[in-house]
């Protein structure tokens, strides 16, 4: 007997369709993360805001727990491969964890669903996306120019700068969920130019786990987590990361970075224009109520 699906506006069919779209989005972001290595926050959070219309706080909170879950897997793999420098992780965490807690405490005094918080998250997110795009495009030039100078600093200065870097990442990630990927890796390459790239990436991922987990739990207490969306994203992202990682070796890295950077710039620009107040010359027209 044939089965007919009826999709009503508020029926189970519509709910399942939306969940499927979230899973597909998780797959797409996971695929890009697997290909580029850039943290999912710079891709997933804008997608949830711009495509699905989620409140920025809900998008950030949900993405933070999503990132904590996915990066935990990567951290375990890097741990087994001994590609984590725990000294670097401790220094980053010494700065990021206190600043994450302080940032969450500040957000708790604001109305998490209010217009002020929406503007704050949107502004920080746009800034973080522009900064991520810049690091993707100019990473090689930055490293060539500054890595040798910074690497020659005294060990105590390097340690202090690492803690400060962790603090900056803690603020960025807690507000926008962006920063623990391309920005963190670039900063570590500058600070530790003699450290193997695999250990740089492994250390960044290992540090991102407690950072995103603490920030995500904080957003959970603030009420800005959507658990059905979180579940759908996880189910879609796991196969996406696997397929993307397999395809990464078949696409030129430079081309990937340029395309991804251009995408982030477009998204950040759209977010920026969304923050601008409406023109005073534009008069809102209210449609008559339908009876």
How would you sum up this structure, described in words?
- This protein has 291 residues and is an all-alpha fold.
- Helix content is 76%, strand content 0%.
- Helix 1 (12-36) runs parallel beside helix 9.
- It is globular and about 55 Å long.
- Residues 1-9 and 282-291 have low confidence and may be disordered.
Q: Which ranges are low-confidence, i.e. pLDDT below 50, for 5 or more consecutive residues?
A: 1-9, 282-291
The radius of gyration over CA amounts to 20 Å
Mean pLDDT figure: 80
Structural class: mainly alpha
Q: Helical percent range?
A: over 70%
Main sheet makeup: none
The total count of helices amounts to 10
What fraction of the residues are assigned to beta strands by DSSP?
A: under 5%
Secondary-structure element pattern, one letter each? HHHHHHHHHH
State the end-to-end CA separation: 41 Å
Instruction: Tell the overall outline.
Output: globular
The domain count comes to 1
What's the β-strand tally?
0
């Amino acid at each position: 007997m044939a089965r007919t699906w009826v999709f009503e506006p508020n029926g189970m069919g519509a709910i399942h369709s939306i969940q499927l779209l979230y899973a597909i989005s998780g797959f797409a972001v996971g695929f890009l993360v697997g290909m580029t290595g850039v943290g999912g926050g710079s891709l997933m959070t804008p997608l949830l805001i711009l495509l699905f219309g989620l409140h920025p706080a809900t998008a950030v909170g949900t993405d933070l727990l999503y990132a904590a879950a996915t990066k935990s897997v990567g951290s375990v793999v890097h741990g087994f491969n001994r590609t984590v420098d725990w000294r670097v992780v401790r220094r980053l965490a010494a700065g990021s964890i206190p600043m994450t807690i302080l940032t969450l405490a500040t957000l708790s005094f604001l109305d998490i669903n209010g217009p002020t918080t929406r503007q704050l998250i949107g502004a920080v997110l746009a800034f973080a996306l522009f900064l991520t795009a810049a690091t993707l495009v100019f990473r090689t030039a930055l490293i060539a120019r500054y890595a040798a100078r910074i690497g020659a600093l005294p060990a105590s200065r390097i340690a202090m700068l690492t803690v400060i870097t962790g603090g900056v990442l803690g603020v960025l990630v807690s507000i926008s969920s962006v920063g623990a990927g391309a920005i963190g890796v670039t900063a570590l390459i500058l600070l530790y130019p003699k450290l193997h790239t695999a250990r740089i990436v492994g250390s960044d991922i290992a540090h991102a786990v407690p950072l995103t987990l603490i920030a995500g739990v904080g957003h959970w207490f603030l009420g800005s987590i959507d658990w059905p969306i979180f579940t759908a994203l996880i189910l879609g992202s796991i196969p996406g990361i696997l397929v993307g990682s397999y395809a990464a070796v078949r696409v030129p890295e430079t081309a990937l970075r340029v395309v991804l950077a251009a995408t982030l710039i477009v998204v950040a620009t759209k977010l920026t224009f969304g923050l601008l107040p409406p023109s005073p010359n534009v008069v809102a027209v209210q449609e008559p109520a339908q009876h």
